[in-house]
């Protein structure tokens, strides 16, 4: 196996910049491995080998001529298949859109292209991004590289699995109730949901307009920071885009957490959590305290209503988007998401508007908390990813509903639109565990820095997924 695929962007970029590594060599290594692992992992929807190699040759030529564009120049990356590529099929991993071709690039695709990224293909997702297992009825399940019987999380499960297994050097996911952070936690990688409006969603097929986000899924925190610098910025094509200056995120990633005030909410974010996950997250918090951080317990009363508000909002908005197809071709949806779209026809206008009032109150309470603390830390997931095909998860010996539990701690970030990062913090058995860091609006640099401080404690201890050790 080629060791290049194990390296992060942060490790590879200097090699490409100083011309000791060719983008062509790297691209071929990643594609070879991606194609070889596809039978086991099933993370790709489509490979762009020919174009990728040509783009890599062009990148190499530019770099040789002294036109190096930055850390992502020459990096082979595949993206989630709900982001539009001009003149390419974008399926949303669905049957209905299996032949859909966009006539323009999504804004994030254009920005990555301008940064010199080499696109190796499109990655699988839960159909229409409306699910957390990535067990796709049309294209088969994506498998978790740490344990091939387990789900990778979703909806960006192809992105999570591909980055974890080295089939893509980094990726982008989309996140409506946790779809970046859930697979990042389950696959042992870094996933950032930026502040709502920080990254343009133009050219991304929507799931729920007011909850959707696009963000990096990477091997390391620095890789995420570098990608965020590329994809951030105001876009007049996206009505939810916010005109706020782009920060130097990489410059803020120092690992210094002296005098950082960490908020811990016991009532919601540490309630009903797998005992081993609970211990790992608290141990990571203690490591930050050992470096000079402080901990403060905080109350956010409206969190008790957040799951209801998240579900009413996402169900209603998603069903509005798919209403016509649900009426005219219901059998072309997978059973699981057809049920959700049907369910989304039930909430009334009163229900939806009441959910928005909960949301408004929740935002205010989070704002109040962030006047006292710098970040909130919690588990990303209260459970470990279950076996593919199961609708239940194990929570301290009890069987609990999978969907309800897996989005419990991620959903509030979508309702509030606040930045939230998942970073690995250890293992339960052979499965990685993620820790979530939330911060005030547009504080991605701070959130990433705390994630970096945790990453520096080596929570993964150099372990690699099973598929590597058996390669």
UniProtKB/TrEMBL annotation:
Pfam families: Amidase. One of its GO terms (molecular function) is transferase activity. InterPro entries: Amidase, Amidase_CS, Amidase_dom, AS_sf. Residues 25-448 form the Amidase domain. Keywords: Transferase. The keyword Transferase applies. Belongs to the amidase family. This is Glutamyl-tRNA amidotransferase. It comes from Viridibacillus arvi.
């Amino acid at each position: 196996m080629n060791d290049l695929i194990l390296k992060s962007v942060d490790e590879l970029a200097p090699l490409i910049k100083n011309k000791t590594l060719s983008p062509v060599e790297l691209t071929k290594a990643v594609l070879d491995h991606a194609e070889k692992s596809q039978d086991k992992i099933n993370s790709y929807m489509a490979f762009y080998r020919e174009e990728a190699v040509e783009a890599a040759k062009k990148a190499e030529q530019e770099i040789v001529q002294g036109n190096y564009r930055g850390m992502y120049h020459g990096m082979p990356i595949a993206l989630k298949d709900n982001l539009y590529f001009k003149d390419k099929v974008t399926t949303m991993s669905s049957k209905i859109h299996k032949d859909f071709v966009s006539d323009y690039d999504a804004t994030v695709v254009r920005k990555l292209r301008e940064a010199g990224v080499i696109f190796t293909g499109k990655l699988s997702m839960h159909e229409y991004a409306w699910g957390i297992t990535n067990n796709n009825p049309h294209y088969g399940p994506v498998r978790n590289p740490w344990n091939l019987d387990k789900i990778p999380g979703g909806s960006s499960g192809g992105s999570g699995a591909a980055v974890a297994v080295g089939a893509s050097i980094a990726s982008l996911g989309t996140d409506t109730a946790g779809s970046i952070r859930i697979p990042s936690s389950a696959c042992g990688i870094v996933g950032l949901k930026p502040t709502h409006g920080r990254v343009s969603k133009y050219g991304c097929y929507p799931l729920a307009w007011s909850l959707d986000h696009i963000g990096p899924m990477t091997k390391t925190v620095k890789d995420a920071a570098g990608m965020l610098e590329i994809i951030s910025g105001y876009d007049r094509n996206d009505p939810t885009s916010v005109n706020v200056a782009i920060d130097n995120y990489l410059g803020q990633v120092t690992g210094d957490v002296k005098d950082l005030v960490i908020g811990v909410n016991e009532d919601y974010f540490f309630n009903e959590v797998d005992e081993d996950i609970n211990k790992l997250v608290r141990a990571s918090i203690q490591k930050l305290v050992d470096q000079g951080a402080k901990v403060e317990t905080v109350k956010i009363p409206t969190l008790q209503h957040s799951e209801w508000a998240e579900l009413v909002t996402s169900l209603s908005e998603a069903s509005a988007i798919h209403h016509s197809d649900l009426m005219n071709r219901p059998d072309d949806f997978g059973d699981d998401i057809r049920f959700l779209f049907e369910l989304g026809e039930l909430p009334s206008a009163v229900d939806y508007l009441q959910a928005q009032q909960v949301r408004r109150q929740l935002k205010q309470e989070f704002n109040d908390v962030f006047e006292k603390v710098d970040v909130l830390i919690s588990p990303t997931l209260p459970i470990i990813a279950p076996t593919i095909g199961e609708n239940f998860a194990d929570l301290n010996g009890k069987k609990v509903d999978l969907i309800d539990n897996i989005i419990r701690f991620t959903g509030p970030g979508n309702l509030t639109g606040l930045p939230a990062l998942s970073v690995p913090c250890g293992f339960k058995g052979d499965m990685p565990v993620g820790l979530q860091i939330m911060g005030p609006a547009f504080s991605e640099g701070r959130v990433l820095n705390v994630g970096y401080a945790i990453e520096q404690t080596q929570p993964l201890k150099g372990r690699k997924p099973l598929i590597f050790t058996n390669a």
